[in-house]
Amino acid sequence: MVVSTDLSGRVRAGTSHGDWVRCARCGDLLYRRRLLRCLWVCPGCGRHERVTAPDRIEQLLDAGSARPIPAAPTVEDPIGFVDRIPYTERLRDTRRRTGLDEAVVCVRGDIEGQPVVLAVMDFGFLGGSLGNGVGERIVAAARAARRDGRPLVVVTASGGARMQEGPFALMQMVKTTQALGELDRAGILTVTVVTDPTYGGVAASFATQADVIIAEPGAHLGFAGPRVIAQTIGERLPPDFQTAEFLAGRGLIDAVVPRHALRATLAQLASVVRPAPEPEPVPAADLVRDPEQLLARDPWEVVRTARRTDRPTTLDYARLMLDGFWELHGDRQGTDSPSVVGGVGRLGGRPVVLIGHQKGHTTQELLTRNFGMPGPAGYRKAIRLMRLAAKLRLPVITLIDTPGAYPGVDAERDGQAWVVADSLRVMSTLAVPVVAVITGEGGSGGALALGVADRVFALESAVYSVISPEGCASILWRDVSAAGQAARTLHLDPQALLRHRVIDAVVAEPAGGAHRDHVDAADRLARTIRGALTELELLEPDHLLDGRRRRFAAFGALADDGVAELAGEGVAG
Domain check: are 42 and 58 in the same one? Predict the structure, then answer.
């Protein structure tokens, strides 16, 4: 292996043959200028070569927009470390070789016109290790983001904490964590871009604490690297272990994004959470608030319509209603449930967080999505997105369409009841407007886990029930064929729900049902939600929370003044 340099003279690893570089993965001989145009991604096999921090900044930021962020001086050799050479000498040699003063470069700049603060780590500087200098620079970048109100984007590349700085390096994990905590309190979006490799103290602090985590293909992220694992416990790792693809499949990161798409992705994220100066005017919604104005229908027929697989799903509505929708993935605990989806987007110019159950249109989709029945991971994902919305002060929209929470052994073992209860509590305390819409089936607690809202609507062919008609018939009639009779008794149809004030209004569907015209159905739904948000955003957070509490406290209470007053104080019958 020969060390070669790119056109600007910065060091880059690769097998060099003059103007040609051999790919370390596929062995193709690549013309250097072409590789540079490809952002140092092999056009044959897609291998993402490491790039320096200055190169990365040039790739991501608009030309001429980068402005350095100064950082306070730090103690460079806190423990007087010497191995083969003194640490001070090693620092001096590294600085001369790389042209950098530390393993991270922090700047203000713009990505496709969107202002950001960018902190880029450089593996070529002592393995991108986290020491006093890096920690102080990450803190300075976070302070700049908070002061300017800009998203913080951190591009990671690190072998871990810097051994030559001993316990001082270890303390930087807390120092940087606290800096990101300040951004949480300030409501500033944080994004991590994971590049290969990211390990140790960086992985276990600011790299994995961002609101959104994306990674380049093939990038490795973990606490202990393969060498440490092999030397410590003698265990060899599978080939794909700790790769971006492995982590995405387990809900630990949001997405794998190739280098050529990073710039557009970061610009979209920065844009979609930017407050709208003035939301667009709201057209009148097609709402029915008087139950007597609804056409009387057989509740069992409504159930059957609600279950149609050609009705729009949450992802259909997201695509049709929202501009710039970007789906977020994973519960950050090892699973990405396909039964619950969510992300950020703009509704009529207003940034929102959308969360909903996801079924599908084909048999394969239904199987993949578990028929829209989430296990604990699905609700953990939803809770994660709700908390992100609260941090960024964005309204939450939930779309409900599930037979119920998944009743399997694994779900029970993993605490299904606990996580549904947690979702109810989190939604009850969100200090941002929340609008819930039952778009199909609203089955039991699995539906209610996304239904604690300031405004609750139902589509014209939606249902909301304590149990499925079949389940009720099996238990009480001891005959599943009595499902139709059970449906008529459960008061689960929109007319009954409106009469009992379980919902605020019914959203009229296109002629024949939402399944006949997805675009029209989405337009009607969007107008309803936008109108509700326009009203709710006029309320202070305390008024929102108080109104939400009173709404649910009143269910089941007697209507006389004394009990109604108690219900308003949180006592429900």
Answer: no
**Using CB atoms within 10 A of its CB, is residue 43 exposed (0-12), middle (13-18) or buried (19+)?**
middle
Q: What percent of the chain has pLDDT over 70?
A: 94
Nearest by Cα to 108 from 64, 68, 151, 136: 68
Residues 555, 87: Cα–Cα separation, whole Å: 69
**What pLDDT, on a 0 to 100 scale, did the predictor assign at position 15?**
52
Digit-coded pLDDT (tens) for 360-392: 999 999 999 999 999 999 999 999 999 999 999
Whether residues 320 and 389 share a domain: the answer is: yes
Q: Name residue, tokens 């013309």.
A: 31
In a domain, 133, yes or no: yes
- Residue 146 covered by a domain: yes
Q: With respect to residue 282, please indicate whether it lies within any of the assigned structural domains.
A: no
Which residues are registered as beta bridge partners of 352? 345
Query: Please, what is the Cα angle at 184 between 180 and 185, to 5 degrees?
Result: 120
**Which of these, 508, 534, 520, lies nearest to 281 by C-alpha position?**
534
Is there a single domain that holds both residue 363 and residue 446? yes
Token pair recorded at residue 266: 């970061």
Strand pairing class (190-199; 152-158): parallel
Within-domain flag for 281 = no
| Maximum distance among all Cα pairs of the chain, rounded to whole angstroms | 89
Q: What is the CATH number of the domain that holds 155?
A: 3.90.226.10
Q: What is the mean pLDDT of the chain?
A: 91
d(CA 543, CA 157): 45
- pLDDT of amino acid 559: 62
Contacts of residue 456, defined as CB under 8 A and 6 or more positions apart, other chains included, come to 435, 436, 437, 438, 502, 503, 504
CA dist., res. 520 & res. 514, Å (int): 8
Determine the structural domain holding residue 25 and report its residue range: 1-47
| CA atoms of 285 and 554, how far apart (whole Å) | 27
DSSP state, residue 127: G
Q: Please name which of 514, 488, 479, 490 lies closest in space to residue 399, comparing C-alpha atoms.
A: 514
* Confidence at residue 13, expressed as pLDDT on a 0 to 100 scale: 44
pLDDT value of residue 18: 66
Residues 59 and 162 in one domain: yes
The verdict on 546 and 491 lying in the same domain is: no
* 41 alpha carbon, distance to own chain's centre: 27
Q: Are 403 and 373 in contact (CB under 8 A)?
A: yes
Same domain? For 573 and 491 the reply is no
Residue 450 has pLDDT above 60, yes or no: yes
- pTM metric for this prediction: 0.90
Tell me the CA distances in angstroms from 442 to 372, 439, 466, 483, one per residue in order: 11, 8, 9, 16
For 10, phi then psi, to 5°, come to: -80, 150
Say whether both 470 and 366 belong to one domain. Answer: yes
Residues 100-156: tens digit of each pLDDT = 999 999 999 999 999 999 999 999 999 999 999 999 999 999 999 999 999 999 999
Number of domains in the chain: 4
521 and 564 assigned to the same domain: no
Mean pLDDT to the nearest integer, 315-341: 96
